[in-house]
Specification:
Blueprint (H helix, E strand, L loop, with lengths): L2 H8 L9 H18 L9 E5 L5 H7 L4 E6 L2 H10 L5 E5 L14 E5 L9 H15 L5 E8 L14 H15 L2 E5 L12 H12 L3 E8 L8
Parallel strand pairs: 1-2, 1-4, 2-3, 4-5
Antiparallel strand pairs: 5-7, 6-7
Helix pairs in contact: 2-3, 5-6
The structure holds S-adenosylmethionine (SAM).
């Protein structure tokens, strides 16, 4: 047996990383929930860009649903590592600073910003400007933009991470809907209790996540779909 070849194969893949399975279980589930509420689920023929992808594990988890996936981050080292760990030509990673306004050569059907600090900002107008800029750079007229984050709704930033209140999030989305006449929605994956076919441990975890103050959420902005009136 060629031991080196065995390990070369193993280490060429994200799944060899510690915590991959936990990320897969935790974020994979949330992402499946998200896809269920997006009307157009024919994603296998669609493209996805993951803005601020960091370690790329979530990008790798999400790519199974898409035809082509690109992860973007401004940290060169992590992008180099991510590209080494992707053995799939349909999953690539690129270095780019999302603060610069250069237009991307490639446009995407789905744009995800997962924990991107550019939206961890109290100033709603600034969030809106950044969103517009990113849609111009990476999107088309019919792209879906997804912001994936968490908040305890306290309007504070005790550790630097700004926790938008429900009112602030609603004001922001109202602003986007009015300006662009698009459909937006906020979805809290753990505010939907599913206890069926679960072990006691899983049930307790679900209940904990349900009642916990800090909640994960998705904001979904569907361009090209006009907001229904009334
Ligand atoms: C909180 S981490 C989230 C990482 C990953 N999305 C995840 O959920 O595991 C934020 C990431 O965004 C990247 N980032 C922040 N500002 C950026 C910018 N202006 N351009 C590109 N990447 C940026 C950071 O390098 C970091 O990897």
């Amino acid at each position: 047996m060629d031991i080196k070849a065995v390990y070369e194969k193993k280490y060429s893949h994200f799944a060899a990383l510690p915590y991959y399975q936990q990320e897969f279980d935790f974020y994979g589930r949330q992402f499946e929930d998200l896809l269920k509420i997006i009307a157009d689920q024919q994603c296998k023929s669609k493209s996805l860009v993951d803005l601020g992808c960091g370690f790329g594990m979530k990008t790798h988890i999400m790519k199974q649903y898409f035809g082509r996936t690109v992860g973007i981050d401004f940290v060169e080292n992590i992008i180099a590592v991510n590209n080494l760990l992707s053995d799939d030509p349909k999953l690539t990673f690129k270095v780019s600073d999302l603060n610069n306004s250069k237009e991307s050569e490639e446009k995407f059907d789905y744009i995800i910003a997962n924990g991107l600090s550019l939206f961890n900002e109290k100033n709603i107008d600034l969030c809106s400007n950044r969103l517009e800029q990113l849609v111009d750079q990476y999107g088309t007229e019919t792209s879906t933009f997804i912001i994936w984050s968490f908040t305890n709704h306290s309007s504070t930033a005790p550790s630097g991470w700004y926790n938008h209140s429900k009112e602030e999030l609603n004001t922001w989305l109202g602003q986007i809907e009015q300006k662009h006449n698009v459909k937006t929605q906020v979805f809290y994956p753990y505010k939907k209790l599913r206890l069926k076919n679960k072990s006691v441990k899983e049930m307790l975890l679900s209940l904990y996540r349900y009642f916990r103050k800090r909640q994960y959420y998705f904001i979904i902005i569907q361009y090209g779909i006009q907001q229904s009136k009334g």
